[in-house]
User: Fold this.
Amino acid sequence: MKKIYFTVINELVYDQRMIRICGTLSRQNYEVVLVGRQFKRAATLQSHPFQQVRLHCWFTKGKSLYIEFNIRLFFYLLFKKMDALCAIDLDTILPCYWVSRVKGIPRIYDAHELFCEMKEVRTRERIYRFWKKIERFAVPRFKLGYTVNLPIAQEFKKMYNVDYAIIRNIAVLNNPELQPVKTETFLLYQGAVNEGRSFETLIPAMQHIDVPLMICGDGNFMQEVKRLVEKYNVKHKVIFKGKINPDALKKITPLATIGITLFDREGMSNYYSLANRFFDYIHAGIPQLCADYPVYREMNAQFEVAVLISDLSSENIAKQINILLADTALYGKLCENCLAARAVYNWQQEEKKLVEFYNNLLQ
Assistant:
């Protein structure tokens, strides 16, 4: 049985993308180990068909955390037997490169995004130079890899002359006939509460929207979001649920009225993004307000599941949400289109490309 190690620096419990990938390969008779970081007050690991390992670090943020985790990861991997090693984003790419060189095994890069083009990286010159230097060194040396859409794959080809496969991060199709009874009306944002997600305009927009916003997630922008809630006096309209494990979140999402998928235009990573939540809302059967960027526009042209907006001002966000709440015909059409779209866009279809990728590599 071939053994594959996957490496991330984040919390394993909430990483639906890696749970899907590792679960699929485990069911295809690969021995899979997912390595992440041990967080303080971390949630209990869920049971999965693959092994999960958390590495403890003394540092909890910044460059010190990155350096410590990468050193610990290098020595952990160095003494493990494996047939292939996959780095998830730039956070863990260097240990994977050096370990793969020492062991003489295939190395794979899973690029969920254009890491250096994220707003929180692109707008900080020193941080950008740090990560860009790592990217320029490592990515050309990872000839094998995959990413979430064609524009990002094309950027990697242009920058580093690597040909990456496209494996989208699509939700699993579960109980397609079951639609829960909704007892309340609310907006839902689920996912990382990070810089670049348009909270600076979404929160003030809540002044002009008469239904609450539920935020399921946490991240580097959470304190600023709470400050914005106070500033615009919408504390009674914004509900912070914190991080929720995937199984519990799957029960909340279908109960929402409208999902939110917004990104600032600053940063190529946002412009070319294909967020997990885009598919999660589709699978939950709920329409969404979404940024009018190329990949979302292309998918919405096939199945109209979202109201796309290019003007991300507070006024326009409030206007478009209120229109969707009031227009029952449009709302009903988008709901029906979600149900049709999820029969086409689902992990059961997408995972075939993942299995083919690793079978070609290791068998």
About this structure: The longest strand covers residues 31-38. The radius of gyration is 20 Å. The domain at 3-170+347-362 is CATH 3.40.50.2000 (Rossmann fold).
